[in-house]
Design a protein that fits this description.
Helices cover 50% and strands 19% of the residues. By secondary structure, the protein is of the alpha+beta class. The protein has a domain of 92 residues. It has a 3-stranded antiparallel beta sheet with strand order 1-2-3, with no helix packed on it. β2 and β3 form a beta hairpin. α1 packs across α2 and α3 crosses α4.
């Protein structure tokens, strides 16, 4: 029996290829955003220190404090517009994967839980079926 194991590097590489095709994201951001997304999913948090703890590969060779600063610089960079990034991905999904005669709704939202803990929610609804991803 063969088992397929996807490492964080393989998933990040494939996400980067997808983002490169779909968005106009610059190369420095393209290198880090797939890891940020995978780190958020794996850590189930949006706190930078929690994300850094789950990063593997080249990130594990660097001092965690340096990686935290790198992520903070990424999030605060004036040339990276997260809303434009979301818009490009959603436009691609809608234009390529919408079934005929069905409505599609994509929702990205966040909510606060406990002491300023933020939960990021991605939700897609096609006709009467709904799929939600909570980060």
């Amino acid at each position: 029996m063969n088992k397929l194991y996807n490492t964080q590097e393989n998933l990040a590489r494939d996400l980067a290829r997808f983002f490169q095709k779909v968005t106009k994201i610059k190369k420095p951001q393209l290198k880090i955003i797939p890891y940020i997304i995978l780190g958020m999913i794996e850590s189930e948090s949006v706190v930078t220190t929690d994300i850094v703890k789950k990063l593997k590969g080249n990130f594990s060779l660097v001092n965690p404090f340096s990686t935290v600063r790198r992520l903070e610089r990424f999030f605060n960079h004036p040339k990276f517009d997260i809303y434009q990034f979301y818009h490009e991905i959603i436009s691609h999904v809608i234009s390529n994967y919408t079934p005929k005669n069905k409505e599609i709704h994509i929702c990205m939202d966040h909510m606060y839980c406990r002491d300023d803990f933020t939960i990021l929610v991605f939700s897609i609804k096609i006709d009467k079926q709904r799929h939600t991803i909570v980060v």
